[in-house]
Write a structure and sequence with these properties.
Interacts with PNN. Associates with the 60S ribosomal subunit. Pfam families: S1 (PF00575). It is a single chain. The chain has a domain of about 100 residues: OB fold (Dihydrolipoamide Acetyltransferase, E2P) (Beta Barrel). Helices cover about 20% and strands about 20% of the residues. A hairpin with a 3-residue loop joins strand 1 and strand 2. The radius of gyration is 37 Å and the shape is rod-shaped.
């Protein structure tokens, strides 16, 4: 087995190939190559890795991940956490790498959860008897002023028509009572 660098080790490697998603870097001292994904090439957005590196360039990289997949060891490298001029570690405590990992994992699927809406307008408070709110939201003091929602224009017209109808029926009832006497 070839001697691989330790996790989070910094070394200088040579660019072997450049693809649209990143660049493969030859690891010194072994025949393995590691991938610098285009998101780890620079702290700025990289659309084309070929604009950043060319085949044969020497670059400073940090080994940020080792993964066994299909009986092959895949190595992840990063250029953005290493100063390309001096090889100095710009993220010695791996804080930005942890933040990048957290960003990838924060997506949650909420499609199975149902959203329920409460129809408040047609409710009557059990505490004060007014329309438009629940007892838990009621702020009426015992013996105090009662408040309810201002009715819409249509509701006002319907209430006025109902009042007129009630008034006419009460007048008709009064006149029939007078006749009986």
């Amino acid at each position: 087995m070839e001697a691989l660098p330790e996790l989070y080790a910094i070394f200088q490697g040579e660019v072997a190939t450049v693809t649209e998603y990143g660049a493969f870097i030859k690891i010194p001292g072994c025949r393995k190559q590691g991938l610098v994904h285009k998101t780890h090439m620079s702290s700025c957005r990289v659309d084309k890795p070929s604009e950043i590196v060319d085949v044969g360039d020497k670059v400073w990289v940090k080994l940020i991940g080792k993964e066994m997949k299909d009986d092959k060891l895949k190595l992840s490298l990063s250029m953005k956490v290493v100063n390309q001029g001096t090889g100095k570690d710009l993220d010695p405590n791996n804080v930005s790498l942890d933040q990048d990992e957290r960003k990838k994992r924060t997506f949650r699927d909420y499609t199975s959860q149902k959203i329920t809406l409460e129809a408040v307008l047609n409710t009557v408070c059990k505490k004060c008897g007014c329309k438009g709110h629940f007892a838990k939201e009621c702020f009426v003091q015992p013996g105090g002023t009662k408040y309810s929602l201002i009715p819409e224009e249509e509701e006002e017209e319907m209430a006025a028509a109902e009042y007129e109808r009630d008034k006419k029926t009460s007048l008709a009832d009064d006149s029939s009572k007078k006749r009986k006497k």
